[in-house]
Specification:
This protein has ten helices and 14 strands. It is α/β, with parallel strands linked by helices. A seven-stranded mixed β-sheet has the order 3-2-4-5-7-6-12, with helices on both faces. Helix 1 packs parallel to helix 6.
Length: 320
C-alpha cells in the first residue's frame, strides 16, 4: 500500500479507465490549457498530455451544454466523465441530469446511459455563503440516479472506477476539504461496489451514520469518546442513493442507538430519509430516539465539528 491524495486517487481512476476503454472521455471547464491541464481542483493533471484534446475536452462556461451533450454521446455508446466546477452550478443542468440520463434508460427500454458527473461539494469553513453547497438532497429524490460521496482516497478510486463502468448515470460528489488529504491506496487494480455502505469503525454503544468529510469528524469523536467508555460504530454510507439499508439496519440492531450526521441543512437532508428507514424497518431495535446532527437551516454553510458530534452522542446515550 502507498499513500496518495484524494485528488490523485481520482486521477488514477480516470487514467486507468481511459486506458482500458477508448469510449471513456473527460469533459468540463478549465481542464485544458487554461489550467495547464490540472483542472480547477487538480484532479485532471496529466490527462490532457496523455490523451489529447479529443478525449480531454475543455468547454465554454455552460454546464447545461456540458451535461446535455454528454447525455447525447452516452446514447451512442460513449462514456463521458463530466466535471462540474461547483455544486451550486448543478441547477443549471438539472433537467438533463434528471430527465435526460436518469429517465432516458427507462424511456428507451433500459438502453444504457453511462455517464459520470463529478462535482466538488461541501466546505471546511463555517459561515461561508457560496461555493460550499451540500446539494445531495436535491438529487436523492431521483429514481435511477446513483449518488456517491466517497470519504477517502481508497474509496474515491474504487468507486470512481465502478461509476465509469456503470451503465447508468452516477453523480459523484467529492468533498472539497478531502482533495489534499492522503490515504492508503493499493498498487493493484481494484473496483469497489456501488450502493454498498461500509463499517469504518466497529462499536457496540451507538451507531453514527454519515458520509464524505463527516466520516472524519465521526472518527475524531469516536476517539475522544472512547476515553469516556462510549464505543461508537461509524457507518460510512459511500452511496447516498440508493441507500444500503441492510448495513444500516444491521448496525442499528447491534447498537440500538443512532446519530445521523451530515453537513447539509437538516430539513430535507439525507438524514430524514435514513431516520425514516430506521423507523419503518428497525424501530424494534431502538433504545432511544434517532438524533440528526446536521447543519442549521440557514443560507450559509456550517459544517458540524467534532464537538457537535460528541454533544449529540451524549444526548442519545443519556436518554432513559
Amino acid at each position: 500500500m502507498r499513500e496518495i491524495t484524494f485528488a490523485q486517487a481520482i486521477n488514477e481512476a480516470l487514467r486507468e479507465e481511459m486506458k482500458r476503454d477508448d469510449n471513456v472521455y473527460f469533459v468540463g471547464e478549465d481542464i485544458g490549457q487554461y489550467h495547464q491541464g490540472r483542472g480547477p481542483c487538480g484532479v485532471s493533471t496529466g490527462l490532457l498530455a496523455e490523451f489529447g484534446e479529443e478525449r480531454v475536452i475543455e468547454t465554454p462556461i455552460s454546464e447545461l451544454e456540458i451535461v446535455g451533450s454528454s447525455v447525447g454521446t452516452s446514447m451512442f455508446g460513449l462514456r463521458p466523465v463530466v466535471e462540474i466546477m461547483h455544486a451550486e452550478f448543478l441547477p443549471t443542468c438539472f433537467e438533463h441530469i434528471v430527465y435526460g440520463g436518469s429517465k432516458g434508460g427507462c424511456i428507451l427500454n433500459a438502453k444504457p446511459f453511462p455517464m459520470v458527473i463529478r462535482c466538488p461539494f461541501g466546505g471546511e469553513k463555517q459561515g461561508q455563503l457560496i461555493q460550499n453547497e451540500n446539494v445531495e438532497g436535491w438529487f436523492n429524490h431521483t429514481p435511477g440516479l446513483k449518488v456517491v460521496a466517497p470519504s477517502s482516497p481508497y474509496h474515491a478510486k474504487g468507486l470512481m472506477k465502478a461509476a465509469i463502468r456503470d451503465d447508468y448515470p452516477v453523480l459523484f460528489f467529492e468533498h472539497r476539504s478531502l482533495y489534499k488529504r492522503p490515504g492508503e491506496v493499493p498498487e493493484e487494480d481494484y473496483v469497489l461496489p456501488l450502493c454498498k455502505a461500509e463499517i469504518r469503525r466497529n462499536g457496540k454503544d451507538l451507531s453514527v451514520i454519515t458520509m464524505g468529510n463527516m466520516v472524519r469528524r465521526a472518527m475524531e469523536a469516536a476517539e475522544s469518546l472512547s476515553g469516556q467508555g462510549i464505543d461508537l460504530e461509524v457507518v460510512d454510507l459511500l452511496t447516498i442513493s440508493p441507500l444500503d439499508e441492510e448495513t444500516i439496519l444491521e448496525s442499528v440492531e447491534k447498537t440500538g442507538r443512532v446519530v445521523i450526521l451530515h453537513e447539509a441543512a437538516k430539513t430535507g437532508g439525507i438524514g430524514g430519509e435514513i431516520a425514516a428507514v430506521i423507523a419503518e424497518k428497525g424501530f424494534k431495535y431502538l433504545k432511544a430516539p434517532v438524533l440528526r446532527v446536521a447543519g442549521p437551516d440557514v443560507h450559509t454553510n456550517f459544517p458540524r465539528r467534532k464537538e457537535d458530534v460528541i454533544a449529540g452522542v451524549q444526548q442519545v446515550m443519556n436518554y432513559r
